[in-house]
Amino acid sequence: MILIGERINGMFKDIREAIQNKDPEPVRYWAKRQYEMCASYLDVNTGPTVEAADQPAVMEWLVKTAQEAAPLPCCIDSTNPDAIEAGLKVHKGKAMINSTTADQFKMDIYIPMAAKYNAAIIGLAMNEKGVPKSASDRIALAMEIVVNCDMHGVPMEDLYIDPLMLPCNVAQEHGVEVLETLRQIKTLADPAPRTTMGLSNSSQRCTNRHLINRTFLIMSMACGLDSAIADVDDEELLDAVAAANILLNKDIYCDSFLKTFRSK
Amino acid sequence: MGLTGLEIFKQLPKTNCKDCGQPTCLAFAMQLASGKASLDQCPHVSDAAKEALDSASAPPVALVKVGKGAKEVALGNETVLFRHDKRFEHPTGIAISVSDTDSDIPAKVAEINKLVFDRVGQIHSVNLVAVANASGDAAKFAEAAKAVQDNTEFPLVLISEDPAAMEKALEVAGDNNPLICGANASNLEAMVELAKKYDAPVVIKGADLNELADLVQKAGYKKLFLDSGAREVNKVLADQTQIRRQALKKFRPFGYPTITFADNPDPIQAVVDAGVYIAKYAGIVVLNTADPADVLPLITLRLNIYTDPQKPIAVESKLYEVGNPGPNAPVFVTTNFSLTYFCVQGDIEAGRIDAYILPVDTDGISVLTGWAAGKFTPEKITEMVNETGIADKVSHKKLIIPGGVAVLSGKLQELSGWEVLVGPRESAGIPSFIKQRWNA
């Protein structure tokens, strides 16, 4: 399971203020903290309060600051292609682009960008019409992304399809469709594209968020989820992932599997 | 294995004409991948595309047969790089070569026929006799092929790169589906013609992997064995690995079994080389030696490598002796799961105890599993005690059972009429148990 730490995001107050004050400390803190908590990527997002024109510079600063503090690649998270490219330019190692939808005009921007910078890319199984309800509609959009990546020579191992989980209090019927989508994505190509999801979405404005997040993560792993953007500062989540890795025969069992998982 | 949507889409005409009833070619590809549509619904798909899609659904390594009848050898149909992922399907065929310059071919073949060994209660043998055209003479080659064929039931591998010599030999041996070895860049057409004429499998040899792939595509024939041309063991290992790896990724030209040659003049080196080839995907390995001492370890290795890792390995259920047991020796009861049996046997041997072991047939499962599954019962133990005639070998009437199934002792004692001693739970405790408790 590739865990993408969600915390360096301008939606959070401390990061928002850090961006406003050009104070690198909170970014550094969360880069290090998430690195220690088993993150493989750091999601970096300027948040919506930064003006569009300033987003490239802020993204550049976030990527540099985060990578100076922790030896991890970034998952460059923005709806602004200039901000993403600014982040890619200063990024060290193999970045991840978060994200493109299945709209052709977006794929035409982001997929060549992934090819140019040899970055991985997250493809959302949705388009301008919104998030489809059924698994088969999600799969059809995922296939569009697969074909476009293949055309631009982005290898399937670098494509992370996100079937888009919605909050379970208001869109409860989507959960089973997402799980079915995860199963079917593996049949789209050989080698199969990878899968990811914005895990915390599943529990927006719900009670017992951590419980909902980790339960859905484990169910999704059983359906073939390879990666998740998640709160890695959640020990119980990490324990559950470690246990799921054992039960899915991804890690070899040992009595100290919780510890071994964290020392990787 | 089903095709993926992407593989299908790449072969479609991409006209988005909707003649198939789907809004786009991509949507049609998805329907095909999920089995909800069939390819003939598209009027515009080319024959080349049809063939590509057909062959993509074929198994990654074709099944190719050599010989006819009871001794026929089938190779290929492999699906994994590592046996623990699933299992290796068709054990490497072992061929022993005879030269057409040998003075007494029938005598040499008689030696090969004797390379039959009993391993864990089963009979295992070499599979093929290779005839090499060392003389360069066509008539001599045909004569040798005849001499070999008349003296063995094993299928033949005919080794000559001269089409004229091969033609002569096939006139003699062609009806028995021999392996033609083989075609290369200079004789490809003639050799493949001969193979087609006799409907026999043929080896394609390339100077390297690139040439091999080219030649396979040029051959236009499907009963093939592959030879990358490499002869040094490190190079063969690399090529064998590439061929299997690419075949599993559905690179069609490498989707055939391979042939390798372990012909190092030093017999020990040849055996070690052949061991590498057996472990690393060789369809056939050709040896020059017919010495049973060279062949037995390879037969054993092949047996081990090609066992199914998902099935428990069982030892034969019969009376075993450890050391030189006399009439006073203790009798241990266990199950025929090989891990269990060898634990017990090893601990008895390490304790320098002369003893008898009775591994009851539990379909190869352990003592506690066998007990829970009703396969390790007082009835079955009694039956085995009676059938093996252990009573005639010892002067006492005492059985030692594993401590884990102590509850069986009463019933077993009643049924068998033997006194039942409950041993330690772990076989490591056997030596001290014997010291303290055994006085027959």
Automatic annotation (TrEMBL), chain A:
The keyword Transferase applies. GO terms for molecular function: methionine synthase activity. One of its GO terms (cellular component) is cytosol. It comes from the Bacteria. PROSITE patterns: PTERIN_BINDING. GO terms for biological process: methylation; pteridine-containing compound metabolic process. Transmembrane segments: none annotated. Keywords: Methyltransferase, Transferase. Gene3D superfamilies: Dihydropteroate synthase-like. InterPro entries: Dihydropteroate_synth-like_sf, Met_Synthase/Corrinoid, Pterin-binding_dom. Residues 1-248 form the Pterin-binding domain. Belongs to the vitamin-B12 dependent methionine synthase family. NCBIfam families: PRK07535.1. This is Methyltetrahydrofolate--corrinoid iron-sulfur protein Co-methyltransferase. It comes from Desulfoscipio geothermicus DSM 3669.
Automatic annotation (TrEMBL), chain B:
Keywords: 4Fe-4S, Cobalt, Iron, Iron-sulfur, Metal-binding. Residues 1-59 form the 4Fe-4S domain. InterPro entries: 4Fe-4S_dom, Ac-CoA_synth_d_su_TIM-brl, ACDS_complex_subunit, AcylCoA_decarb/synth_gsu, Dihydropteroate_synth-like_sf. It comes from the Bacteria. One of its GO terms (biological process) is acetyl-CoA catabolic process. The keyword Aminoacyl-tRNA synthetase does not apply. It holds the Pfam family FeS. GO terms for molecular function: 4 iron, 4 sulfur cluster binding; iron ion binding; methyltransferase activity. This is CO-methylating acetyl-CoA synthase corrinoid iron-sulfur protein large subunit. It comes from Desulfoscipio geothermicus DSM 3669.
